[in-house]
Amino acid sequence: MNSEFDFQNIVGQFRVGGALADCVRYGEGHINDTFKVTMNEGGRDVHYILQRINNRLFTDVAKLMRNIELVTDFCRKSVLARGGDPLRECLTLIRTKDGKAYCHDGANYFRMYVFIENATSYQSVREPRDFYESAVAFGSFANLLADFDASQLYEVLPNFHNTKVRYANFEAAVQKDVCGRAKEVAGEIAWVRAHGDLCGKLVDAIASGEIPLRVTHNDTKLNNVMLDNATGKALAVIDLDTVMPGSLCYDFGDSIRFGCNSAAEDEPDLSKVHFVFDLYKTYLSGYLSAVGKGITPREKELLPWGAVLMTYECGMRFLTDYLEGDTYFKVHREGHNLDRAHTQFRLVDEMLASIGEMEQAAQRA
Asked: Alpha carbon of 3 to those of 83, 108, 190, 357: distances in Å?
């Protein structure tokens, strides 16, 4: 059993039965410390997930956990209403004995979930089917929360996908030029400025009510999806630390940005970097099959633009960080952030070249 913390005392604060049999580190997450807890309940082993919340990153744990509490409770009711199994199709929080969503031992904050049995989250796509199933998972997540009032949620990362704010930050970085790098990337700066009219496309649509404010996950990668070990089908979306109010187009777009790149995000050889249209259609098909009536016609029309906007925004952030001296994203070589920016800009160029086909595919799907 892991001895980093007093697990007998910590686990004992939650509403679980039986005796603590084991507690070991689990998974490959880099933000929180995650453990698999085994409780012996009436002669059988019952498993839970215990996490130490990184309160250096998430400084307001109470508001963070209130988000998760609201979202998981709503998902549970939605799954039950459609005749599903909430213990496998969504995260289930275990409350403490005094009814709270987390406990505090004086130095650390902990939360506990039901362990989803016979399921796995994968770090990388093994085959296109995995990408399709991740789309099903996030589409289903959006469907479950279609009637949820997203304005209730705390903005864990303010203005995270406010592309107008990101553009203002970029221009500030250019003007300050604290590292004297602006001259060497004049072409990249010009490229960002030339596409600046994109910035308001989603932000303004939300502000005007053209598209509704929704719950967004904001980390829509395959490793945040549980796939059934027997069938390979999507079960549930996990890691809800960054659930915030936003647009479905954000989550859809970021999945496309990351999953439809033919190369690594930091590939220096741009001849290897291409937008894979077939993977876009694969994800689109899975997402729309699951989101169902949880998406409006206008949101559906804007899905391709979500892919363009999230890719443009990400590339702009990489370039901004390069101009500011590589202070936000971890870098492992000279010009690392610049390479990352270049891949995103290449993808945007190719997406815009095929935007008509992307829109047609969305309407046909």
From this structure: 41, 15, 54, 56
Q: Are 86 and 92 in contact (CB under 8 A)?
A: yes
Would strands 93-94 and 44-53 be described as parallel, antiparallel, or unpaired? Answer: unpaired
Three-state secondary-structure class, residue 339: helix
Backbone angles phi, psi at 237, to 5 degrees: -95, 135
Single-letter amino acid, residue 346:
R
pLDDT in tens, the chain (365 residues): 767 789 999 999 999 999 999 999 998 777 899 999 999 988 899 999 999 999 998 999 999 999 999 999 999 999 999 999 999 999 999 999 999 999 998 899 999 999 999 999 988 888 889 999 999 999 999 999 999 999 999 999 999 999 999 999 999 999 999 999 999 999 999 999 999 999 999 999 999 999 999 999 999 999 999 999 999 999 999 999 999 999 999 999 999 999 999 999 999 999 999 999 999 999 999 999 999 989 999 999 999 999 999 999 999 999 999 999 999 999 999 999 999 999 999 999 999 999 999 999 999 98
Amino acid found at 307: A
Helix then strand then coil, in percent of the chain rounded to 5, is 50, 15, 35
Its pTM stands at 0.94
Closest CA to 312 of 191, 212, 146, 225: 191
Nearest of 206, 214, 215, 236 to residue 224 by alpha carbon: 236
CB 118: neighbour CB atoms within 10 A?
11
| Angle at the Cα of 231 from the Cα atoms of 119 and 280, rounded to 5 degrees | 95
**Residue ranges in the chain assigned as alpha helix (H):** 7-11, 61-81, 86-89, 128-144, 163-176, 186-194, 200-207, 248-259, 277-291, 297-323, 336-353, 355-364
